[in-house]
């Protein structure tokens, strides 16, 4: 699979612990940070969990 660039666009302040953990696994700790990730099943599952907090920049 390819690579995905993901950007955090909403705050994690009032999110449940499992969503905060998913953001940590994705490497998103602050707003407006962009990370490039391998598009495997584990990453896509975490992206699906926090899709309301992030934005896909590039695939």
Any chance you could write out the topology, listing elements then pairs?
Blueprint: E1 3-8, H1 17-26, E2 34-38, H2 41-49, E3 54-58
Antiparallel strand pairs: 1-2, 1-3
Helix pairs in contact: 1-2
Explain this structure.
This protein has 59 residues and is of the alpha+beta class. Helix content is 32%, strand content 27%. Helix 1 (17-26) crosses helix 2. The mean pLDDT is 95.
Short key terms for the protein model shown above:
59 residues, alpha+beta, 32% helix
Briefly, what is this?
The chain is of the alpha+beta class and 59 residues long. The chain has helices spanning 17-26, 41-49; strands at residues 3-8, 34-38, 54-58.
* Largest sheet report: 3 strands, antiparallel
State the helicity in percent bands. Answer: 25-40%
Please give the order of strands in the largest beta sheet: 2-1-3
By DSSP, the count of extended strands is 3
pLDDT under 50 segments (min length 5)?
none
Cα end-to-end separation: 10 Å
Mean pLDDT reading: 95
Shape: globular
N-to-C SSE string, H for helix and E for strand: EHEHE
| Alpha carbon gyration radius | 10 Å
β-strand percent reads 25-35%
Our count of helices gives 2
Instruction: Find the structural class using helix and strand composition.
Output: alpha+beta
């Amino acid at each position: 699979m390819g690579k995905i660039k993901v950007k955090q666009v909403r705050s994690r302040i009032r999110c449940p612990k499992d969503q905060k953990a998913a953001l940590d696994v994705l490497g998103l700790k602050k707003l407006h940070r962009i990370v490039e990730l391998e598009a495997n099943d584990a990453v896509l599952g975490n992206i699906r969990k926090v899709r309301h907090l992030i934005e896909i920049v590039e695939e």
